[in-house]
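Thread: "does anyone have the structure for this chain?"

Original post by V.I.:
We have the sequence but no experimental structure in hand. Need at least a predicted one for the grant figures.
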Amino acid sequence: MTSAQPASLTAVLGPTNTGKTHLAVERMMAHATGMMGFPLRLLAREVYDRVVAAKGARRVALITGEEKIVPPYADYFLCTVESMPLDKRVAFLAVDEIQLCADPERGHIFTDRLLHARGTEETMLLGADTMRGLVRRLLPQAAIVSRPRFSRLVYAGPKKLSRLPRRAAVVAFSAEDVYSLAEVLRRQKGGAAIVMGALSPRTRNAQVALYQNGDVDYLVATDAIGMGLNMDIDHVAFAATAKFDGQHFRALRAAELAQIAGRAGRHMADGSFGGIAGLDGGGALDGDTAARIENHRFDALTHLHWRARRLDFSSLAGLIASLEQRPERPEYVRGREADDLAALKALAPRPDIRALCHDADAIARLWQVCQIPDFRKIAPGMHVRLLARIFTGLATQAVLHEDWIAAQVRRLDNCQGDIDTLAARIAGIRIWTYVSHQAGWLARPQYWAGETRRIEDSLSDALHARLMQRFIDRRTSVLLGQRRQRGKWMVDLDAGEEGEAISVEGHHIGWLDGFRFHVDPKA
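Reply from O.Q.:
Generated one for you, tokens below.
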């Protein structure tokens, strides 16, 4: 695939719930071959399942950092943006959420795909209307198509958690806040499903199924729901409008809030959004911001984050210099120092690493290792030490020693523990899943990919069970559901030794002794 002008190049721009992704999937399936790049592993998996249903598993590939399902004769490739195999020629290519070109952390990757990833017959770039001016300047040959939202999005003001309507999503920006809000909803509403970017696809799908099936009427999520994950949400309530972005605690821009609020209302059904009352103003929206979200009026993006794609592997200093090259155009800016570059800078001065970087191939291999994501996010130094061990193994043994890999993987194969412990193990196993998908790193890559997948699935099921146990009160959820359906509860009295046993909808709640009610402490 080259950056030569394709037969057609179209930017499809508009707010959420405009059918942009659906349009691109349909266009891709009309071609003999195709590829789509998504911002989230979860979204790539969602579209993969849809295309498999239409085209059959033998024709469809899924490529993310941690999942690779690539049949020998695959025609359609659903990928995260980082994992798109750009050396593969396909008739159709699409990149989703191109406004992420302005993201300080991952923007340079989206910008590279915007400028260079092309299908031989058709290319579609999907994103927010804030990209219109930049697309016109950088890609003057592109046709720009506007897509209006299918339904209205209305500001409903702040509401207390206890007053939230059914089918609502509460949005927070830290795991601690997500958990505390879910605890309140458990007590008041019977429970909530949890959606966070850190969840594995298996856990996330199981949690979403609880919500979609009506087992719970509420969802508590991070901004992970803003990137195209489709759920039947009527109302989005912000518990906060600021977040820590990895370096600074900052207020979200109106366009970012709109991306999340836009999850309310699907297809022709209207949606609403607002804040959570009584949280010290953390989720409050001012009138101007609310109006801009309702009317989809946002400041145009003026700069994209950029990083050079032609790298110098002749020396470590040359590689770092090429990665820090100044942008070519005024529309491009260098983003914050990415994790891979920070890791390279930490490893490059080490004498043991320098001794192994004796040629361009070795330096290129070191750069590959530096791109292993830090899923654990415990401490940068810990991740750098792991990278050093992996690179040393590859440089001295050709492939990583199987006994060492087995020891690393085995200690994560444990489904005991609380939510945080299980989530940490999932983050840990994701690293080894990523390693197993790198060509030439392991003697038995398919075996280890299967092992890490098995462990991730087991941990994911255990995490789903813990989330249900902690954040869903089955009895309260059932009782509230029955009352909604019938307008009343079925109450039964049965004589027993301790008095009249009282059950509501089959759930024992206590005893009546004369005129005194005794609550069952186990109820």
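V.I.: this helps a lot. Residues 445-471 form the longest helix (27 residues).
O.Q.: and Residues 226 and 260 are 4 Å apart (CA to CA).
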